[in-house]
Automatic annotation (TrEMBL):
Its cofactor is Mg(2+). Substrate binds at residues 33-37, 49, 77-79, 81, 83, 200, 206-208. Mg(2+) binds at residues 32, 219. It comes from Vreelandella lutescens. Binds 2 magnesium ions per subunit. Its EC number is 2.5.1.31. Catalyzes the sequential condensation of isopentenyl diphosphate (IPP) with (2E,6E)-farnesyl diphosphate (E,E-FPP) to yield (2Z,6Z,10Z,14Z,18Z,22Z,26Z,30Z,34E,38E)-undecaprenyl diphosphate (di-trans,octa-cis-UPP). UPP is the precursor of glycosyl carrier lipid in the biosynthesis of bacterial cell wall polysaccharide components such as peptidoglycan and lipopolysaccharide. The active site is at residues 32, 80. It comes from the Bacteria. The keyword Magnesium applies. The keyword DNA-binding does not apply. Keywords: Cell shape, Cell wall biogenesis/degradation, Magnesium, Metal-binding, Peptidoglycan synthesis, Transferase. Pfam families: Prenyltransf. The gene is uppS. This is Ditrans,polycis-undecaprenyl-diphosphate synthase ((2E,6E)-farnesyl-diphosphate specific).
Length: 261
């Protein structure tokens, strides 16, 4: 484990607790605990999801402030369709509302938005607003915000494998040409870099089929907080935890130390 870097005084008097180089480039979050948060307060699950939307806003703002280049949020998994119809309908309404109301703010902050997942499962209205939102923010150069909706890691890998198999069958590709880079380029997350830090809230310690390929070498941080209680301070704590990790990528400590010499 490496020692934490000392705070550095920046121009204008701003003190950073970690160097910019030490921060993760891509942070992915499994947002969990909305229903439990609501039940603990005698509220409906919908109220929990609405409270979760407020946390999404706060975390996006904090991530942009900290200079995170890519922030991915697991909003709705391909397995979430199994939930009660009333809850699914409420989630779709919240998703549509966010696409209508929040995108302008993202654009004003120079944030680029991408939605990954099987979009054909959504209503025509949601699909239309996804296209509008991505088009409006496509030219932005700030943080890249990725929302995973109707997404599953196994679906993503299987989809890419099927696409490559079709190219082989058509004589456009040979099996020997298929490697990690080609599979990665065929995935729905092709514009998304590997995840450096994955955060899951609510105390659960599993990946729940989220970005399985991209999480291959990610550092994992499990927060006991339910998602509506997660805030900027909790996000900073996860970043601080990441900065204390030593990432080896299959190498030894001695090799890592030699690279830093």
């Amino acid at each position: 484990m490496t020692s934490p870097q000392l705070p550095q005084e920046q121009p204008g008097g701003t003190t950073l607790s970690r160097s910019e180089e030490a921060l993760p480039s891509h942070v992915a979050i499994i947002m969990d605990g909305n229903n439990r948060w609501a039940r603990a307060r005698g509220l409906s699950g919908v109220r929990g999801h609405r409270a979760g939307v407020e946390t999404v806003r706060a975390v996006i703002e904090r991530a942009a402030e900290r200079g995170i280049k890519t922030l991915s949020l697991f909003a709705f998994s391909s397995e979430n369709w199994k939930r009660p119809a009333a809850e699914v309908n409420a989630l779709m309404e919240l998703f549509l509302m966010a696409l209508k109301r929040e995108v302008k703010k993202l654009n004003e902050r120079n944030i680029r938005l991408s939605i990954i997942g099987e979009q054909r499962g959504f209503s025509h209205a949601i699909q239309k607003h996804i296209q509008r939102a991505e088009g409006l923010t496509a030219g932005n150069t700030g943080m890249h915000l990725v929302i995973a909706a109707n997404y599953g890691g196994q679906w993503d890998i299987a989809r890419a494998a099927r696409q490559l198999a079709e190219q082989v069958a058509a004589g456009e590709l040979t099996p020997d040409a298929i490697d990690e880079a080609r599979l990665d380029a065929a995935m729905n997350t092709e514009q998304v870099p590997p995840v450096d830090l994955c955060i899951r809230t609510s105390g659960e310690q599993r990946l729940s089929n989220f970005m399985l390929w991209q999480l291959a070498y990610a550092e994992l941080h499990f927060s006991p907080l339910l998602w509506p209680d997660f805030d900027g301070a909790a996000f900073d704590k996860a970043l601080d935890d990441f900065c204390l990790r030593r990432r080896r990528f299959g190498m030894t400590d001695e090799q890592i130390e030699a690279q830093g010499a």
